[in-house]
């Protein structure tokens, strides 16, 4: 129960006061009317007596009467309403009273912290107190109690009356008639001989004062000085001046009474007309404005909207119309009135009461039984005994018992009431107690309940009494009233009293239970108020019960809303909300929010309503779909009415949720996928998901392109260009958008509801701030609206803010329009300590682009771009660059993840199709005929040369410098050749693009990044890029495996030239090329033809083909393998990095020779093995430098020269290019595909493959924590040393000898030694047979060498030296001549040998293959 | 059998609420929420000294016109509330007690699940099944 202004004692005392009736003559009424008051109203402010009165009880004890208040009322003769319930008018009145008092605004509410709840609520509930006061005042008088029966009657007559005394008589008779005639049941009178007090009212401003005094004297004689009074009022003649401040004590009373009177007036009027008592009716009532203006309260339950100010405003208006009160009264007059009341009370009323108490007491004492019961009762109480009480169940049986007015039981009650009124609570209690027992024994329920109630109250009021408050009396009384007598009004009064008492004793729990019990279906207002009080009880408990408080507040709010008290209902729900908010009780929370929303809306607080509804709709709700649908409908309805009110700006809609972080912004046109046959570059689009790896890759490519544009250095200010911004991109920078290019914003919406939400008319709004404020564009701004999603800027500046305007719609045709801000909060910062401890967010500039001046915009199209290729296949496509902007572009470059995949045609104009860059390509049908390779028609005389392998065609050399950038081992952007280097606006350039299938099979993703700059310098954007990515599916074609081994025969064609040098040099090398068709697809590729094998090397060239097939075509069907053998010759090394490409046409019937050195063959070759030269240089240590040869064996560098020499012998830098043709059947058409494969031969005798070997791919790089040690000098292995010298035996294959004639057969044999090394070698030839091993004891297979058994020779580098030998045979047979053992050593010792004593150790050389000779015997 | 079974976290937010006439869900939510006041009162009444040996079963929290509300508090201050129809007089205190014990065991199993994050709403199927077994079977 909330805190009250009054104390409990005051409250109870004021609830039961002596009642005084007023009968006024018409003239007297006129006198008071001057003050806009009637007589009873005139007295009301002075009804509380300030001084203390005294009364003697029957035992002659003086009893003080403190702070007494009397109630003065006009006599009203309307019948009392049926007991047990309030009349509708009274109910309405109470409703008005409650709704008129609202919690004061701005007053800081009470804050209670209970557990983890902080609640703020109003500690006082003035509306409840007002209700209680009105309720108690409107209590109808009833038969079973006398407390609100009239004790006295004031007869008021004006002194201006002709004969006042007669008038008095008339009034006196009138009073008597009302009381005793039996015509009226109301008002009720306390005692038969009511005290009549005669008041002569004198208007000092009008009447004759002496006459009044005379009349008063007359009255005094007639009625005694204690029974009459002369009241002089209206001393003021002039209306109140503005300067004079007279307090208006009436206002606070009449405030409430206005409402009260309005209701009663309505009823009185009806009654008065009926009964012809018009003169009784106060005329002020007739003209009361509220009577007509009274708002229709019948439809309170409906959703009707109250007028803005509520009843308060209406009341204030009424008050203003009524004017001020007491205009003609001075302060002296106030004193007069006060004196009069004091006089009346102390001289008239109290003695009258005293007299009656005495009289009643005498009566009762004279009655025998009574005195006994009275005494026994007191004795029992003081003895601590307890009267046995009958159970309620018994009482219920008879309830209709009525006592006659003069029944002795009622006399006790009457006396008790009198005692109670004059504050003699002890006597009152004992009387009530006695009466209670009597009533109970008579089974008079109503009477008994009344006595119980009052007994409890008077027991409570006994100051300092040791008696505990008998709460059970109250409970019994309430129960009896309610259940036994069906009198809710009395029950309610009883409950109100009891609750107040319990509250004062701190028994909040009991009070709450009591109050909750009193709630019932019959009165919503009462239930609401009592529930609210119960809620306050819960919160005021020692351990505040917050949840119960909240729950009962909700119940109270519900009842309030049913009773039409919308403001109170809203307040209750809001207070309850504090407990439920954000604690996981979502169903309850939703319910409260929904109710708050509805109530706020009906109270014209649409903002609050929208806010409350927003809570329901945004949190992830557990409501069912139908419930959500209802919420949504309601919300949209509210929202619509709100938005209808505020036309200026669209209100914000909470639905649908925008995932701001997921917003993507795309700068640029939407990509065109294809245009006819042309396939546009994929570029970036919103369809693509963001991929971190991809982004890094593109950034690297861009860096490459930028680096190549800036001569290899990436500028410090380089920033990768971002076309599409999302949550993962770097959004700290302000993005740059180009003027007149669209910006596409992708916004992610989410509907958190289970019901569908229809959105339409979405538009993106934006505001724009021009950079240059003085520019003429300023006028058009700052806010424009663009309909449709893409927005185009035609102004330079920065985009500031974006909004989304949208129309939401539920399934019902309820359409609202609203907007939502699109603001992106940056990612949470988490780097510094402050960031970690607090929650701070970074910036996100995604939606704030800077619009820059025009930039070129390029589009790239591809034509005939394949999707599947054979490994190494070369095909031709076209690429078209279009400048679609109004600005020229230059510096076009392309960077790619697979730089060896493509090359541009038309570099030197060697390709006929690329000679005119912009020419339209040939049609696809003609393209298949067109070979990728530029061929050179061989001279007509040459074909027969080809028929003889011994005569190679004139070799074609190319001295080419590989592309600068590729040599560095790093992919670098390739500049795209454009005519003049500039692409003008609107111009387009078409270039042929050669593509070569990747060497490895599988699907390859190939990314291109086209880079270009504006031809005009100084733009904000330094360059732009265009991305393209393609997928190429590569399938296996041929596998090439090549080996090389040194040849011991001097090359034939060089012999002549070398002979000029005077020496025979061994510089031949045999190259074996194994080609295998590894193509798996049996359907497609029918066969491969090897067309040509070319070589590329600094020192070597292929110059002769040893064709095992002779003139046959080299065809390879599936899984076939062909072996080709070539002879390579050393040629003069080229300076620097230059390499020579030599072509050895292989396919003889082809009359034309492919120029391998021209595009695209060479391009692809150089692009494919860009890292070789580096490796080579590092390993060879520059050995192949020309100086090494010219110095002729004089090794100047510090390392192990001999080791190097040995190594060089085993190394060769030879690249082989195999060109092939494939015959493919596709769609019943035969296609010829062409391609090339590359093999790099590095080591003599070691196999090299065209396909990268898997082992290499798995090679792991070891982590090194120490700097590398200088690599140890590699000792030439025995194996390496054993290949220094190649030996060959020359002899006739068969030799006939007449053994019959001559026993010995001597055959001349030449041993040819060739030095493979580049250093001088000392050779030791040992002809002695090896120590015969046990198993080869075969004597007859032996032969002997004649002559010297050991030879020593020195061979200069690459020298070929013959050594004539003679073999001697004894028998005919087959002999193996390869018995000579050859040892070799360098003339200069190797380092190891030096360390071991400087003696060069000879190493046994590899034996030549068996050389068989057949000796036949000649007959 | 029960018409509503609720598990409330230490911080007094619902971990699990299930009620049988689903259309009255809101009402049961309110009832359970309000009963927490009584639970708190009972816990604080038990006193701090007795906190160790405190009986977990709190008994009848309060009767309303239609329902009886029973409470149970684990040592970790997780509350179980069972609402029983008042008309159901066959239920003895012991049965309620055993229902709570079953509920507690099942909830402990839920807590033992390493994938359950304490404080999250209970979504275990086993728990759900156990609760369903204790609820009034709606035909």
Automatic annotation (TrEMBL), chain A:
TPPC8 C-terminal Ig-like domain: residues covered: 1284-1385
Positions of the region Disordered? 828-847
Limits of the TPPC8 second Ig-like domain: 871-1026
Identify the Pfam families for this entry. Ig_TPPC8_1st (PF24545), Ig_TPPC8_2nd (PF24544), Ig_TPPC8_3rd (PF24546), Ig_TPPC8_C (PF24542), TRAPPC-Trs85 (PF12739)
TPPC8 first Ig-like domain span: 687-813
Q: Which GO cellular component terms, listed alphabetically, does the Swiss-Prot or TrEMBL entry include? A: TRAPPIII protein complex
Q: What is this protein called?
A: Trafficking protein particle complex subunit 8
UniProtKB/TrEMBL annotation, chain B:
Instruction: For this UniProt record, give its keywords in alphabetical order, as a comma-separated list.
Output: ER-Golgi transport, Transport
Primary residence: cytoplasm
Q: What is the lineage of its organism?
A: Eukaryota, Metazoa, Chordata, Craniata, Vertebrata
Output a single Gene Ontology CC term carried by this record.
Answer: perinuclear region of cytoplasm
* Localization per record: Cytoplasm, Perinuclear region
InterPro entries on file:
Longin-like_dom_sf, Sedlin, TRAPPC2L
Q: Which Pfam families match?
A: Sedlin_N (PF04628)
Protein name (record): Trafficking protein particle complex subunit 2-like protein
Q: Describe the family membership recorded for this protein in Swiss-Prot or TrEMBL.
A: Belongs to the TRAPP small subunits family. Sedlin subfamily.
* Species of origin: Gadus morhua
- The reply on keyword Ubl conjugation is no
GO biological process assignments: endoplasmic reticulum to Golgi vesicle-mediated transport
């Amino acid at each position: 129960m909330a805190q009250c202004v009054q104390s409990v004692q005051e409250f109870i005392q004021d609830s039961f006061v002596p009642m005084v009736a007023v009968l006024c003559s018409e003239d007297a009424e006129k006198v008071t009317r001057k003050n806009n008051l009637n007589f009873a109203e005139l007295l009301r402010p002075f009804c509380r007596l300030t001084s203390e009165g005294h009364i003697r009880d029957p035992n002659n004890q003086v009893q003080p009467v403190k702070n007494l208040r009397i109630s003065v009322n006009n006599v009203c003769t309307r019948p009392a309403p049926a007991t047990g319930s309030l009349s509708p008018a009274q109910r309405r009145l109470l409703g008005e009273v409650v709704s008129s008092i609202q919690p004061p605004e701005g007053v800081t509410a009470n804050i209670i912290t209970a557990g983890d709840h902080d609640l703020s609520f109003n500690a006082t509930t003035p509306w409840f107190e007002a209700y209680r006061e009105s309720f108690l005042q409107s209590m109808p008088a009833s038969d079973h109690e006398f407390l609100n029966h009239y004790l006295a009657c004031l007869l008021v007559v004006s002194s201006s009356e002709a004969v006042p005394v007669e008038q008095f008589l008339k009034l006196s008779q009138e009073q008597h008639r009302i009381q005793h005639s039996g015509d009226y049941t109301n008002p009720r009178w306390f005692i038969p001989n009511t005290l009549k007090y005669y008041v002569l009212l004198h208007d000092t401003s009008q009447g004759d004062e002496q006459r009044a005094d005379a009349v008063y004297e007359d009255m005094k004689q007639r009625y005694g000085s204690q029974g009459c009074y002369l009241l002089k009022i209206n001393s003021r003649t002039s209306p109140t001046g503005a300067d004079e401040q007279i307090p208006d004590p009436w206002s606070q009373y009449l405030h409430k009474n206005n409402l009260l009177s309005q209701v009663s007036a309505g009823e009185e009027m009806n009654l008065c007309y009926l009964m012809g008592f018009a003169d009784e009716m106060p005329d002020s009532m007739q003209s009361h404005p509220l009577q007509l203006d009274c708002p229709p309260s019948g439809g309170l339950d409906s959703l009707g909207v109250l007028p803005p100010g509520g009843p308060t405003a209406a009341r204030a208006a009424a008050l203003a119309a009524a004017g001020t009160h007491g205009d003609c009264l001075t302060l002296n007059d106030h004193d007069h009135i006060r004196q009069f009341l004091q006089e009346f009370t102390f001289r008239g009323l109290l003695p009258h009461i005293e007299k009656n108490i005495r009289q009643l007491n005498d009566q009762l004492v004279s009655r025998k039984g009574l005195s006994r019961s009275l005494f026994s009762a007191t004795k029992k109480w003081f003895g601590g005994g307890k009267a046995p009480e009958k159970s309620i169940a018994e009482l219920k049986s008879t309830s209709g018992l009525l006592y006659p007015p003069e029944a002795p039981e009622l006399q006790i009650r009457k006396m008790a009431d009198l005692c109670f009124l004059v504050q003699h609570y002890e006597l009152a209690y004992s009387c009530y107690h006695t009466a209670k027992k009597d009533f109970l024994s008579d089974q008079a329920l109503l009477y008994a309940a009344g006595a119980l109630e009052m007994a409890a109250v008077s027991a409570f009021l006994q100051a300092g009494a040791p008696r505990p408050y008998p709460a059970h009396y109250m409970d019994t009384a309430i129960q009896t009233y309610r259940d036994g007598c069906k009198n809710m009004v009395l029950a309610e009064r009883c409950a109100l009293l009891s609750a107040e008492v319990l509250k004062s004793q701190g028994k909040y729990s009991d009070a709450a239970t009591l109050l909750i019990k009193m709630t019932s279906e019959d009165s919503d207002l009462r239930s609401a108020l009592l529930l609210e009080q119960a809620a306050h009880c819960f919160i005021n408990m020692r351990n505040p019960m917050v949840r119960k408080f909240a729950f009962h507040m909700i119940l109270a709010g519900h009842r309030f809303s049913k009773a039409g008290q919308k403001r109170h209902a809203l307040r209750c729900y809001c207070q309850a909300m504090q407990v439920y908010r954000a604690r996981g009780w979502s169903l309850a929370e939703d319910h409260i929010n929904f109710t708050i929303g509805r109530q706020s809306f009906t109270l014209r607080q649409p903002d609050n309503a929208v806010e409350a509804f927003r809570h329901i709709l945004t949190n992830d709700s557990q409501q069912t779909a139908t419930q959500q649908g209802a919420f949504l409908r309601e919300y949209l309805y509210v929202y619509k009415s709100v938005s209808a009110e505020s036309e200026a700006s669209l209100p914000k809609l909470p639905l649908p949720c925008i995932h701001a972080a997921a917003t993507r912004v795309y700068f640029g046109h939407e990509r065109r996928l294809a245009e006819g046959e042309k396939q546009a570059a994929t570029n970036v689009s919103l369809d693509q998901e963001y991929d971190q790896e991809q982004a890094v890759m593109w950034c690297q490519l861009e860096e490459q392109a930028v680096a190549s544009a800036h001569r290899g250095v990436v500028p410090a200010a380089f920033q990768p260009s971002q076309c599409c911004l999302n949550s993962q991109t770097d959004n700290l920078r302000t993005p740059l958008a180009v003027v007149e290019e669209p910006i596409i914003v992708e916004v992610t919406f989410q509907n958190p509801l289970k019901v569908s939400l229809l959105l339409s008319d979405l538009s993106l709004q934006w505001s724009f701030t021009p950079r240059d404020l003085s520019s003429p564009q300023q006028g058009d701004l700052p806010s424009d609206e663009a309909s449709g999603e893409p927005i185009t800027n035609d102004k330079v500046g920065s985009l500031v803010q974006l909004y989304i305007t949208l129309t939401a719609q539920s399934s019902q045709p309820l359409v609202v329009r609203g907007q939502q801000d699109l603001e992106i909060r940056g990612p949470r910062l988490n780097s510094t300590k402050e960031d970690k401890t607090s929650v701070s967010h970074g910036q996100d500039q995604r939606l704030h682009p800077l619009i820059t001046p025009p930039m070129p915009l390029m589009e790239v199209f591809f034509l005939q771009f394949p999707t599947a290729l054979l490994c190494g296949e070369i095909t031709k496509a076209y690429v078209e660059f279009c400048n679609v902007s109004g600005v020229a572009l230059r510096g076009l470059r392309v960077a790619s993840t697979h730089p060896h995949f493509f090359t541009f045609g038309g570099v030197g104009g060697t390709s006929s199709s690329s000679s005119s860059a912009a020419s339209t390509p040939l049609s696809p049908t003609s393209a298949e005929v067109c070979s990728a390779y530029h061929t050179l028609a061989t001279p007509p005389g040459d074909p027969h040369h080809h028929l003889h392998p011994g005569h190679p065609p004139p070799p074609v050399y190319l001295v080419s410098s590989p592309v600068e950038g590729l040599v560095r081992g790093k992919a670098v952007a390739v500049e795209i050749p454009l005519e003049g280097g500039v692409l003008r606006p609107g111009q387009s350039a078409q270039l042929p693009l050669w593509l070569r299938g990747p060497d490895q099979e599988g699907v390859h993703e190939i990314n291109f990044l086209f880079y270009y700059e504006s031809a005009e310098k100084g733009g904000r954007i330094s360059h732009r890029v265009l991305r393209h990515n393609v997928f190429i599916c590569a399938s296996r074609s041929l596998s090439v495996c090549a080996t090389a081994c040194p040849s011991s025969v001097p090359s034939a064609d060089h012999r002549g030239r070398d002979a000029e040098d005077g020496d025979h040099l061994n510089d031949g090398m045999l190259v074996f090329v194994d080609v295998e068709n590894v193509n798996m697809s049996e359907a497609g590729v029918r066969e491969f033809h090897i067309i040509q094998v070319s070589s590329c090397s600094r020192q070597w060239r292929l110059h002769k083909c040893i064709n095992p097939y002779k003139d046959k075509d080299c065809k390879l069907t599936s899984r076939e393998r062909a072996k080709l053998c070539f002879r390579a010759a050393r040629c003069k090394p080229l300076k620097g990095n230059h390499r020579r490409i030599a072509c050895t046409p292989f396919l003889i019937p082809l009359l034309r020779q492919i120029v391998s050195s021209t595009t695209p063959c060479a391009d692809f070759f150089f692009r494919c093995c860009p890292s070789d030269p580096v490796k080579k240089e590092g390993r060879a240590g520059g050995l192949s430098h020309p100086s090494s040869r010219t110095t002729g064996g004089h090794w100047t560098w510090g390392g192990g020269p001999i080791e190097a020499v040995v190594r060089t012998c085993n190394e060769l830098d030879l690249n082989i290019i195999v060109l092939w043709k494939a015959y493919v059947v596709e769609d019943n058409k035969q296609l010829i595909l062409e391609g090339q494969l590359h093999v790099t031969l590095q080591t003599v005798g070691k196999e090299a493959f065209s396909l990268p070997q898997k082992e290499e791919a798995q090679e792991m790089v070891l982590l090194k924590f120490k700097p590398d040690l200088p690599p140890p000098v590699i000792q030439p292995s025995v194996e390496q040393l054993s290949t220094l010298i190649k030996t060959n035996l020359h002899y006739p294959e068969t030799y006939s000898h007449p053994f019959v004639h001559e026993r010995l057969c001597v055959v001349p044999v030449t041993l040819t030694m060739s030095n493979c090394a580049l250093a001088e070698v000392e050779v030791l030839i040992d002809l002695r047979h090896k120590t015969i091993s046990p198993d080869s004891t075969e004597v007859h297979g032996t032969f002997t060498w004649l002559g010297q058994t050991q030879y020593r020779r020195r061979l200069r580098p690459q020298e070929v030296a013959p050594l004539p030998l003679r073999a001697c045979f004894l028998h005919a047979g087959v002999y193996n001549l390869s018995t000579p053992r050859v040892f070799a050593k360098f003339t200069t010792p190797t380092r190891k040998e030096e360390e071991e004593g400087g003696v060069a150790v000879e190493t046994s050389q590899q034996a030549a293959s068996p050389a068989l000779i057949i000796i036949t015997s000649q007959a | 059998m029960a018409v509503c079974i609720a598990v409330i976290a230490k911080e007094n937010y619902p971990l699990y609420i299930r009620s049988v006439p689903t259309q009255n869900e809101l009402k049961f939510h309110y009832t359970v929420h309000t009963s927490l006041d009584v639970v708190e009162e009972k816990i604080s009444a038990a006193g701090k000294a007795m906190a160790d040996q405190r009986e977990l079963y709190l008994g009848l929290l309060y009767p309303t016109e239609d329902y009886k509300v029973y409470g149970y508090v684990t040592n970790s201050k997780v509350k179980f509330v069972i609402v029983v129809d008042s008309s159901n007089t066959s239920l003895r205190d012991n049965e309620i007690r055993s229902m709570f014990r079953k509920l507690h065991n099942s909830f402990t199993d839920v807590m033992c699940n390493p994938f359950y994050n304490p404080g999250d709403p209970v979504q275990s199927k086993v728990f759900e099944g156990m609760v369903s077994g204790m609820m009034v079977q709606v035909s």
